[in-house]
What we know:
Blueprint: H1 2-84, E1 94-97, E2 100-102, H2 104-120, E3 126-130, E4 134-137, H3 139-158, E5 166-169, H4 175-184, E6 191-192, E7 206-212, H5 217-234, H6 239-261, E8 269-276, E9 281-288, H7 293-298, H8 303-310, H9 317-326, E10 333-341, E11 344-352, H10 357-369, E12 373-377, E13 380-384, E14 390-394, E15 403-410
Parallel strand pairs: 1-3, 2-4, 3-5, 5-6
Antiparallel strand pairs: 7-8, 8-9, 9-15, 10-11, 12-13, 12-15, 13-14
Helix pairs in contact: 2-3, 5-6, 6-10
Amino acid sequence: MTRELFLLRRNTKIKINQIRAAQKRNRKRFELNLYRRRLSLKMMEDKRVSQMAEKEKVNFKEDVIYRNRKKIESSREKILIKEHKKYNYTSPEIRVALCGEFGIEQGGIDYFVKKAVEIIDFNAQKLTIDLQDCTKMWPSAITLLCSLVEWVEFGHKKIKDIKGPRIFSTYSKVGRVNDYLSTSGFFEFINKSDDTNIQTGHPHHVIKIKRETTKDSNVVSEKEDDIINLLIENTQYTPAEIKSFVSNVIIEVFGNIQEHGIQVYDSGWWFLAQFHLKHQVVSINIADNGIGIKNSLLSGPQKRQIKSKLKEKAKLDGEMIKYAMLESVSGALGSEIEKKYGVFYRSYDLIGQRRGNGLDRIRETCKNLNVPFAIISHRGYIYYDTIGNMSYGTKENRIFAGTLYHFDFPVSRSTK
Length: 416
């Protein structure tokens, strides 16, 4: 009995120790799981707090960007209104005669600018474009005149104390000129001085001038397709070269027009493209009635560095167009905040979205394809010939009511 009792006691003690050890392990396991749970909850809470802080930070940035975008857009609208108020149209009538051919395509940039000064900055109750001795009105000239009509109409609607002047056109003595102008859509915007009937048509090589007031991507894509088809049907360039031109030039121009032409106000944008068999060129014209390149840059996110760099030259439209072409600057509104000091944002200027790289692509692509082009914006202009030589200038008076991008796409590459 003594031995049996001893074994019983020993086994009981062993079981008790095993139970205690198991309880101790369970307690440690519970404490470890509890610690892990508490740690997990703390991490989740820290993450939630961090996400809320980041969201508040993002919301703050977005709010700053939104407010400053609106501030810039408001300042640009004021610039446009100020530009319109320079003209009170008090003189009775001005008559401008266009003789021979008129357009960048054939007459060159100098003659075009000279005549544009006489037309665009008129300050009379009535402007009559005398076409009696005109033998050719090129697409660049059609765009110039049609956009002027819309500029004047916009000022009349926007500013109550400005009585909009009337713009008329006579007919040419050459019947085919009148037919061509009608086919191009010219007389849909310019008032005719009489009711003479003229022939109209819609040949495949003429895309009528049209004013658009939308940023709809489908509309822009249609215009791009029109240009592609026009170039494929009438030039000897390869599909790859045409695609390069549309991708690097036309799409960029459409982007600029939409950014600076109709972002703040519905002033619309213009498109006109035509193939001219006799001169072996496709004329492409895209324009807006906006505030112009100079005003866009000086009211945009990089205005301080531009003014610091150019100083007095920043007042000249031609210098500003040249600067935009040669330097990485842009008036486009981006989505970044320029400077940050500690936890406080002291400068809320927006960085240029494309920073001018688009204009650089336009210049290089046109040079590679031997496509001369011109940009005319309010009082300034720049022109590149087939091999990339540049000329530019600034006039005292306006030479375009907005900004015009003009391209003379040749049927075949230059051999020069």
